[in-house]
Specification:
Number of helices: 6
Structural class: mainly alpha
Helix content: over 70%
Pfam family, one: Tmemb_185A
Shape: globular
Distance between the termini: 31 Å
Number of strands: 0
Keywords: Membrane, Transmembrane, Transmembrane helix
Radius of gyration: 18 Å
Organism: Alaudala cheleensis (Asian short-toed lark)
InterPro entries: TM_Fragile-X-F-assoc (IPR019396)
Protein name: TMM60 protein
Largest sheet: none
Order of helices and strands: HHHHHH
Length: 134
């Protein structure tokens, strides 16, 4: 399951464009769609990324794989998995709030996003200050 860089960029651009078009139509009140329907391109893109990530992580389970060779790489993939799940939780909570399915405060809706941004800042700081340079 290998994609070239051009294919990944095109796929990202296509799903982002489709999401933004649907969002603009919803915000201009041209389309009376459900908020969960508006976020479908985001969820399709995230599902593709999750499947690719899980397939790469599952490759460690095959016979003949030496677990000592890829432990830092596995930690990074585990962080990517957690980040994707936090993004998914934020999108679901935001859609539920916008669709009035829940009466939770907006501050609670943003907790997964804040956790994701905090983790990204920690990873950035670790990569800048603690990783050895060649």
């Amino acid at each position: 399951m290998r994609m070239s860089l051009a294919q990944r960029v095109l796929l990202t651009w296509l799903f982002t464009l489709l999401f933004l078009i649907m969002l603009v139509l919803k915000l201009d009140e041209k389309a009376p769609w459900n908020w969960f329907l508006i976020f479908i391109p985001v969820w399709i893109f995230d599902t593709i990324l999750l499947v690719m990530l899980i397939v790469k992580m599952a490759g460690r389970c095959k016979s003949g794989f030496d677990p000592r060779n890829g432990s830092p790489n596995m930690k990074k993939k585990l962080w990517y998995l957690v980040a994707m799940l936090l993004k998914l939780a934020f999108c679901l909570a935001l859609c539920a709030k916008l669709q009035h399915f829940t009466t939770m405060r907006l501050a609670y809706v943003f907790i997964p996003l804040w956790a994701l941004l905090g983790g990204a800042m920690l990873e950035l700081g670790y990569n800048i200050f603690y990783l050895p340079r060649d």
